Amino acid sequence: MVNVSKYEQAEREKRELQRLPDEFSDSDIQEWINRLFIEEEDPVSKRRIELLRTDALPFLVKALEDPRIGVVKFAQSNRAFTARSPLERIVLLLSRLRAYDAVPALVRLMEHRDSHFRRFAAKGLGSIGTPGCIAPMLRALSEKEDEVIQGALGGILAGSICGSGTPEFLDSMFPAIIKLLNRQVEFTLPSAAGMLLTIDAESAVPVLLSPKYFSANNPEVHSLIAALNLKDYLVPHHILLPFMDAIRPRAQRYPFNFAYGEALIAYANNPDANARNTIRAALRSRNETIHEFAAEAMELFYGVDYAIGSVVVEYQRTGFDSMTGPQRHYLAVTEYNEVCEDDHHAHYFMGSSGDHWPDALEGFKAMGAINRARILEGATQLFGPTGPSTDQDIRRQQLESFSPRQDEMLMEFDEAYFRNYPLENLSTLMSRYATAFNHHFTPVKH
Questions:
Q1: In whole angstroms, what is the distance from residue 140 CA to residue 142 CA?
Q2: Is residue 326 assigned to a domain?
């Protein structure tokens, strides 16, 4: 029997995280802060600190003076999306605030021998962005350690979102970031190009389009073009087309496949008479990365931009039943895939997205995702000849009545979905489907 009560308890805990206790004292706040130094994640304390906003600021700044702050690193540091230290947790909380009083402690941490601590000190300083942050941030941006540069750029981005960087600070960062445009820095978000466009797009564009950086010889040119695409900048043909000709012979290898792919997106955003044939040729590429980019480019060429965004808007406006068939297929497939790639079929059928399983099944078949269709169809057969109810409450009752063998078989479909994931390129299939039914999605004006 699927444990529905456990699922409902988790839902209650999620709702509880959205509010502060009716009564609490400074000692309670300090206890929540203290829990940031414990390896096991405490989402309740973290969320309460977030809800306090500026009232938590003096407690967080004080925590930076704790003797443990530059010492403690957690043993389970290789788990994805899990903080590796108390400093990381505290800086991420401070980055949403204008924590000017934290500057002295963060400057001291920039002298730490361990690059992890320098990374998050730089992230904190970048999010604050006052003149007192300039000197240590310039050192961070010229570091040999990639992770420190990651922290610095991430901090500047956080500060720009909050509007905390002063003009003097941002003007000082600009030339230092330019120097990173052709330096390979692993896993950086934002990219150097994206950060320049965020700080001063008018000054950044001529730099990014210059032959020094918009070049097939620049190992980071893919991130440069991606940043321009995200800003909807139309790259002139006299720059883009010679670049594509130069990089095409190398496009089967990394990172040139990403560079050519981003160039296809740029071409679709600013097409000429030859754009469609160029994109179609890329759709025949054996390189999976180029193939995915080409599918997205073809969407854009036919006027489909961010298909899921348009169907979500339509869903909120009219409701699921009033949407067109292609829109329902696209939304239902997205819902199912988002749950099952990270979770379990049991949770999919417990949740409201499970109401749409018939459209998800039809959508997989219509898109040509035959393996996924077989997996979903097999999971629904466990519910009997009529399949799962499209009523959430009834469907939960069906799950509660499952035998241990049915529970085990449902989990086997989880494993099957995980094994199938790399074998069937769903993003490409969905792009082709959106292109074929482009009039069902919001058009883009070129």
A1: 5
A2: yes
Cα atoms found within 13 Å of the Cα of residue 322, Cβ hemisphere only:
8
Question: What does the alpha-carbon distance between residue 361 and residue 366 come to, in Å, rounded to a whole number?
Answer: 9
Q: In Å, how far are 161, 189, 231 from 202, measured between CA atoms?
A: 18, 21, 12
Residue 423 DSSP one-character state: G
Taking the C-alpha atoms of residue 340 and residue 386, their distance in angstroms, rounded to an integer, is: 22
Report the number of distinct structural domains present in the chain: 2
Domain limit, last residue, from 179, 202, 233: 179
Within a domain: 57: yes
Domain enclosing residue 88, as ranges: 17-179
For the stretch 264-302, pLDDT in tens is 999 999 999 999 999 999 988 889 899 889 999 998 998
- CATH label of the domain that carries residue 29: 1.25.10
Residue of 210, 284, 216 whose CA lies nearest to 245: 216
Question: Is residue 285 situated within a structural domain?
Answer: no
* Dist CA 442 CA 330 (whole Å): 13
The three-state secondary structure class of 387 is coil
**Residue, of 389 and 443, whose pLDDT is higher:** 389
pLDDT bracket for residue 445 (50, 70, 90): very low
Residue 321: exposed, middle, or buried by beta-carbon count in 10 A (0-12, 13-18, 19+)?
Answer: exposed
Q: Is 0.70 topped by the overall pTM?
A: yes
Please indicate, yes or no, if residue 314 is contained in any of the structural domains. Answer: no
Average pLDDT on 386-398 reads 94
- At 12 the pLDDT is 66
Q: Which residue has the tokens 């456990």?
A: 6
With 0-12 CB in 10 A as exposed, 13-18 as middle and 19+ as buried, what is 47? middle
For 48-92, the pLDDT digits (tens) are 999 998 999 999 999 999 999 999 999 864 554 578 999 999 999
Q: Which of 132, 147, 179 delimits the end of a domain?
A: 179
* DSSP letters spanning 34-50: HGGGSSS--HHHHHHHH
